[in-house]
Write a structure and sequence with these properties.
There is one protein chain. Helices cover 76% and strands 0% of the residues. By secondary structure, the chain is mainly alpha-helical. It folds into two domains: 41 residues; 238 residues, MetI-like fold (Orthogonal Bundle).
Length: 284
């Protein structure tokens, strides 16, 4: 048996093992989803969606947690996306290559893998205490913005790198300035990749609990936030609280809340994927 045959056998073995692990992971995920849906679907109704939290499981609802989650994600989008895309565009197209820029790029890439609790401590020190925002929805949104910024920056840079240089050269040959080339050629061509990074970052942010607990998200809030400085609750926090209660009714409510959180995540991702595909079809 020569080396080529050995390599083929090894490659086939790795592919087989990888396929088995993939199927096992899918099976486990299906079982978990089935159990959650089986337990929680009976609890989902209009009263559950519009009721306030309660110490009685049959009366507990997720109205404040849903509103808090949507408000938090909206603010995070407003803060993080313009800054992240702008920073990625600057680093890739305008920043001069030097030791400082190289060090900055390495640190940004490393920040994408930092545990979320570290961002919670950072938000606690800067936004809650230094700026005096307290445990408000503003502090939570700014903390999550810091959490997802590295992902958006890295995704933006990689999407811009993937744009063929010939497109830029053609734009310059027609007399376009650098900003016109970026605005009319580079950003539209890289929009799909940028939006993919945004989707991944928001999917991570919507399920985060640890940094928001540190910042001051509350498990019981009997009102929806009316300003940026109001206290807030979120679905992951509500789910975590209910799962720690001994009553079986709270376990059922937690399963129902998980279903709602999954639906919100799928809807957000679906909208983003639709916009990305629509944009790519428009370009093609």
């Amino acid at each position: 048996m020569n080396n080529l045959q050995k390599n083929r056998i090894i490659d086939t073995s790795f592919k087989t093992v990888g396929l088995l692990f993939t199927l096992l992971g899918i099976l486990i995920l299906v079982i978990l989803l089935y159990n959650i849906i089986r337990v929680g679907y009976t609890r989902i109704n209009w009263d559950f969606l519009t009721s306030l939290p309660s110490r009685k499981p049959e009366r507990a609802g997720i109205y404040t947690a849903i509103i808090g989650t949507l408000d938090l994600m909206l603010l995070t989008i407003v803060f993080a996306i313009p800054v992240g895309i702008g920073a990625g565009l600057y680093l890739e197209e305008y920043a001069k290559k030097s030791r400082w820029s190289t060090l900055l790029e390495i640190n940004i890439a490393n920040l994408a893998g930092v545990p979320s609790i570290i961002y919670g401590l950072l938000g606690l020190g800067i936004f809650v205490r230094f700026f005096g925002f307290g445990g408000s929805i503003l502090s939570g949104a700014l903390t999550l913005s810091l959490l997802i910024l590295p992902i958006i920056i890295v995704a933006t840079r990689e999407a811009i790198k993937a744009v063929p240089p010939s497109l830029k050269e053609a734009s310059f040959a027609l007399g376009a300035s650098k900003w016109q080339t970026l605005q009319k050629v580079v950003l539209p061509s890289s929009f799909g990749g940028i939006l993919t990074g945004v989707i991944l970052s928001l999917s991570r942010a919507i399920g985060e609990t640890a940094p928001l607990i540190v910042v001051g998200a509350m498990a019981y809030v009997p009102f929806i936030p009316h300003s940026l400085f109001d206290t807030f609750s979120i679905l992951p926090m509500q789910i975590f609280t209910w799962t720690t209660r001994p009553q079986e009714g709270f376990a059922i409510a937690a399963a129902a809340a998980i279903i709602i959180l999954l639906v919100i995540t799928f809807v957000m991702n679906g909208i983003a994927v639709y916009l990305r595909n629509k944009w790519q079809n428009k370009l093609s």
